[in-house]
Amino acid sequence: MDCSAYLLGLADYARAWELQEQLLADTIAGKSHASLIVCSHYPVITAGRRFEPGNMLVDESTLAQKGIAFYRAQRGGDITYHGPGQLTAYPVINLADFTRDIGRYLRTLESAVISFSKSLGAPEALRRDGFTGVWARGKKFCSIGIALKHWVSFHGLSINIKKDDLENFSLIRPCGMDIEMTCLEELCKKELSVRDLARPFIEHFMKAFENSGYPASLSRR
Amino acid sequence: MKEVILPALGEGIEKATVSYWFFKEGDAVAEKSDLVELATDKATFNLPSPCAGVLSQILAAEGLEVRVGEKLCLLEES
Predict the structure, then answer these.
(1) What is the per-residue pLDDT across B57-77, written as a single tens digit (0 to 9) for each?
(2) Is A188 among the residues known to form the active site?
(3) Is the pLDDT of residue A184 over 80?
(4) Residue A147 and residue B9: Cβ atoms within 8 Å?
(5) CATH T-level fold of A2-220
(6) Of B12, B41, B43, which has the smallest distance from its Cβ to A147's Cβ?
(7) Which of A116, A115, A119, A110 is nearest to A91 (CA)?
(8) pTM of the full structure
(9) Are the C-beta atoms of residues A155 and A92 closer than 8 Å to each other?
């Protein structure tokens, strides 16, 4: 898999969305096979196709006061929060090149996050059958919601890194469930820098796809 | 008449919910154009039209859950 990585740093949700749309169009047209956008976002709440309005616990004016944007997203899943304390990754991959298997793709994303988390000092990171995402000590720290167009993936995953961001999850019922969120700083009991983790995450992402049988090599832009 | 069915989506995924039809009955549809959007628990995806033709009947309305192998619509090939 020739995969181009795009490291955007702290980016507006709309900017990352525009890049995804462009990469999606290029990939559907056969000009690209695999890309990975890695970034973090200014505070934003996004609602997927399964969004139940009752899972937003405050009104839009409260969000505006807190400086949190709101978007409806064309992805699976319910509602989630993104902020500067998270590492967010949007793989744009033509699954038809490898395997037309949504479940296998989701499990591969989880594997990438689990090995990444273990390498940082969170050995208890695991998946839970029937609950897509990555968990530790009964709490969730990675949310996944994807979309496919012509078997090309877009949207993706976000990993809670920093403690500062966690309180904003109280504004919503994350993924429409009564769950507690945690983050890698809590799990690893040390301070972490989102910016410094982008490249190590890409390495684990590529390894997880290789291990799942997706042929892999990486070039960076 | 061509039947469009929900294709196999991979291990552990047996059903999806119809979230959006891009066309209505009677519309002309080009081959490979987005026909219908479906959603599973954590994924949404668009199913392209397998051929050019006319969407003659929608068999799974928006909001309906469909199992892999079940019919979504009928297309009259042109």
Answers:
(1) 999 998 899 999 999 999 999
(2) no
(3) yes
(4) no
(5) BirA Bifunctional Protein; domain 2 (3.30.930)
(6) B43
(7) A110
(8) 0.88
(9) no
